[in-house]
Amino acid sequence: MKSASKTVVRSSANDRALVIMAKAPRPGAVKTRLVPSLSPEAVTAFYCCLLDDTLALARSLSNVEVAIMCPESDVNELAQLAGSEVSVLAQRGEGLAAGLTSVFAHFAQGRTIAFNSDSPHLPRSILEDAFKTLAAHDLVVGPTHDGGYYLVGARDSHSTLFAGDGMGTSSALERLLSRARALDLSVGFAAPFYDIDVSDDLTRLAAELHLAPARAPRTAAWLKELELASAQSRTSPRMGTGDP
User: Fold this and answer.
1) With respect to CATH, is domain 12-196 assigned 1.10.10.10?
2) For the whole model, what pTM was predicted?
3) Residue 5: what are its φ and ψ, rounded to 5°?
């Protein structure tokens, strides 16, 4: 298992790294904004499916080193889930900003892209295009519709790029672009996309995977089971409502 404190310098023949920002799947620790519509246990099971399919998406790209960046306390658990082909790295510091800073400090040279662990529905072409964009720009960013970003890539380490607050807010993207301008970094953009934060995102994902379950098979199967269970709950007779 690799340590995030060791800088990796890759050869020009294989200069691409794809890093998934993840947490160990524990109730109350992942996708907490879905809890009003799902139980903490259901959210945890759902996150496991998202992570598994996201790993499969990352591994489907050729000539790419795949890794997970996570809090130090989550390394062992995620290493068991990810398998031996994926490096699981402990970030320095707390929070997503510290995690992203750790990604680009670890992979100091070459083209490195970090993206969300809840993105199994992301078309592989977006990731390939993002790597191509990095050939001509210092940064590549994938905006979300809520003012954040689901993907960020760089060719070098910039220690202040993710400094300050605003991660996970509607101003996260603008704050990132402002810091990039201050550092005089050129920025290219990946196609806008969405991640899974609230129940409306879940509904959208279920509809998409209903039409194309192969995009994220484990997540699609879990959502289908959820739909069947919800339908059964709605049609089951309620106690005390029958005739006397």
Assistant:
1) no
2) 0.88
3) -80, -10
